[in-house]
Amino acid sequence: MATRVRRNALFFLTLLFLLSVSNLVQAARGGGKLRPQECNSKCSYRCSATSHKKPCMFFCLKCCTKCLCVPAGTYGNKQSCPCYNNWKTKEGRPKCP
């Protein structure tokens, strides 16, 4: 009986460890929950209010592909997507719209 309890506890701890590693990998990759095929519609809305749609879409799609996240709304709210918010150009300006 004690062996069975130990085996179940070991299984549970292993499962918990694997879930933690999976979350760390996702956070390192960008932390977003979008699927790549969702980027186009999210970026279309994100860029809908700008007069510079073509560059906005280019950079938004680039950022979404890397981060798997696009902030809500057409402007701001970048704190909800840290990867998107923290990706900067060589000059230190935000890369993502």
TrEMBL record:
Keywords assigned by UniProt, alphabetized: Gibberellin signaling pathway, Signal
Name this protein carries in UniProt: Gibberellin-regulated protein 5
Keyword Nuclease part of the UniProt annotation: no
InterPro entries: GASA (IPR003854)
Family: Belongs to the GASA family.
Gene: LOC104779801
Keyword Plastid appears in the UniProt entry: no
Signal peptide location: 1-27
